[in-house]
Structures are given as C-alpha cells and as structure tokens.
C-alpha cells in the first residue's frame, strides 16, 4: 500500500499565539497540544480514505506532543528524536508517495507570525538557502526532494502557506490563521479541522510533483550571538563572513542538513 509521511509542528496550529502555549507544562499548552493532535488526525483521515498508510512524525520541541488516542486507528506515530540530519523528517525514505506538513509556521527573518522562527527561536536572526530566507518547510522539503518524495500539502499560518506556494509548484496549502504583529487572527478550531481534512483530500486527487534538485545549496546563517557564529565557523568547509554570519555550500540537501545540524548545536 502507498504511504504518506506527515511532519507535524505546533506553532502553526489554530489558536497558538504565545511561546508559553508551545511549552510542556506552561499555560495554554494542553489546549494547543489537543488542537495539534486534531489537525494531524484530520490529515490522517483524508489520506487513509484515499487508500494510503500514514506515518506521523511529531516534530515539535520534545517530539512528544501529539495525543495518539486522538489519531485514527492504524496511524503510526514517531515520538521523540532520531538525532539525525533528517530532523523533523526523521523516518522518511524513498518508499513514501508523498510528504505533508501540519502546523508549520513562518520563518525567522519574517514578520508573518508572532512565533516566526527557524529551528531555534533563540539562536538565529535568519537563515538563507541560495539567497532566500529559509523556513523549516524549505529545509525539510529539500530532504524529501532528494529522496524523490513530493511535498503535497502544508497547513499553518498564512505567511508560511504563501511562501510554500511560491517555492513548491502544485503544493496545496491551508491557512489556519494570520499573524499580525504580536497577534494571530484565527479560524474556529473545528473549522480548521474540517477544512484541513477536505484540503488534504483535494491535494491527493491532484498531487504535486517532486521538484528537481539544484546544482548546489549555500546556507547562510545570521546568528544572534557572535560566539555561536565563531563556533559554527569551525565546521569543515564553513566560512565566517563577519562577526555574526557563517556560510556553507553543499552539493546535496542531506549534506546541507548535516552541516546545519552540527553548526547550530
């Protein structure tokens, strides 16, 4: 049977607005965790109805956020971290027919969400790949591209949906909310759940095709702290451009992801 891989984050889910809502044990986290689980479940139902097996990677923070009891029977859930360059795509391989992204968010260097960040909210002002601001979607969709797995669907804030549509021809997106300054303007939680399920079904009826790979990938990281930049510059092949900025050029997305993993730890 064909398989779908779902990478699930939290900051792009309906209603999530403040950092405390994204952290275990903090005010609002339980409500956010439940909405994340229900939005993922909606995507799973649509994929299973279309005849796919579904594997979900919990890709937020600890990797232990999704309530498995809220997912459809038969879904497989990956919790925690595999400590590999695949990061939020840990578990993906060439056997999957497509990848989907739930709860994704706008990147560091943008003003499209009060929770805008890329990988680590405390370390970077922005990251760029081949001259363009890079989101977590950008970084992980490249890994899927390298495996020949097309990225079919993304849900999250309006900013990341627009960015994904701009770089990935044919991808279907659904915006759960819009970031405005320090606020989010949200749909009703149940409406987001219903519309994610419908949109995933539509994405599978007319699936996007995998993108061709580039000849090379140049990652530029603008750190908040000059000490972090200096540490990253010691990675083999990395170049310190100034006190806060480091560059590295890779020939493949996996090589790029490996460099990012070690340069930013």
Topology readout:
Blueprint: E1 3-8, H1 29-49, E2 53-58, E3 76-78, E4 98-104, E5 124-129, E6 132-133, H2 136-146, E7 151-157, H3 158-167, E8 172-180, E9 183-186, H4 189-205, E10 217-223, H5 226-232, E11 239-240, E12 245-250, H6 253-264
Helix pairs in contact: 1-4
Coarse shape? globular
Distinct helical segment count? 6
For CATH, the homologous superfamily of the largest domain is named as: Dipeptide transport protein
Give the radius of gyration: 17 Å
Unreliable runs, pLDDT <50, ≥5 residues?
none
Task: Kindly describe this structure.
The chain has helices at residues 29-49, 136-146, 158-167, 189-205, 226-232, 253-264, and strands at residues 3-8, 53-58, 76-78, 98-104, 124-129, 132-133, 151-157, 172-180, 183-186, 217-223, 239-240, 245-250. The chain is an alpha/beta fold. It folds into two domains: 3-115 and 135-205, 3-Layer(aba) Sandwich (Rossmann fold); 217-264, no CATH class. It has a seven-stranded mixed sheet with strand order 3-2-1-4-7-8-9, sandwiched between helices. It is globular and about 50 Å long. It starts with a strand and ends with a helix.
Kindly list the characteristics that best describe this protein.
7-stranded mixed beta sheet, 265 residues, Rossmann fold, 5-stranded antiparallel beta sheet, 29% helix
Please summarize what this structure is:
With 265 residues, the chain is α/β, with parallel strands linked by helices. The protein is built from six helices and twelve strands.
């Amino acid at each position: 049977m064909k398989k779908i891989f779902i990478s699930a984050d939290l900051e792009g889910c309906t209603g999530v607005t403040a950092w405390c809502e994204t952290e275990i044990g903090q005010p609002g986290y339980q409500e956010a965790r439940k909405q994340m689980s229900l939005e993922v479940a909606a995507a799973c139902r649509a994929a299973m109805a279309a005849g796919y097996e579904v594997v979900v990677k919990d890709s937020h923070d600890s990797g232990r956020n999704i309530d498995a009891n809220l997912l459809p029977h038969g879904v497989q859930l990956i919790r925690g971290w595999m400590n590999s360059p695949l990061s939020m795509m840990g578990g993906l391989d060439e056997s999957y027919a497509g990848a989907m992204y739930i709860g994704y968010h706008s990147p560091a260097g943008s003003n499209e969400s009060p929770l805008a960040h890329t990988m680590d909210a405390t370390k970077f002002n922005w990251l760029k790949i081949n001259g363009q601001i890079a989101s977590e979607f950008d970084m992980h969709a490249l890994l899927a591209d390298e495996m020949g797995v097309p990225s079919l669907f993304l849900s999250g804030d309006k900013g990341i949906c627009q960015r994904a549509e701009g770089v990935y021809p044919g991808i279907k997106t659904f915006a759960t909310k819009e970031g405005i300054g320090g606020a989010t303007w949200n749909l009703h939680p149940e409406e987001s759940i219903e519309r994610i399920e419908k949109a995933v079904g539509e994405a599978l009826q007319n699936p996007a095709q995998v993108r061709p790979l580039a000849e090379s990938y140049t990652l530029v990281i603008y750190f908040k702290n000059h000490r972090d930049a200096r540490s990253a510059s010691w990675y083999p092949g990395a170049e310190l451009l100034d006190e806060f900025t480091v560059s590295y050029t890779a020939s493949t997305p996996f090589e790029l992801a490996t460099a990012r993993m070690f340069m930013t730890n």
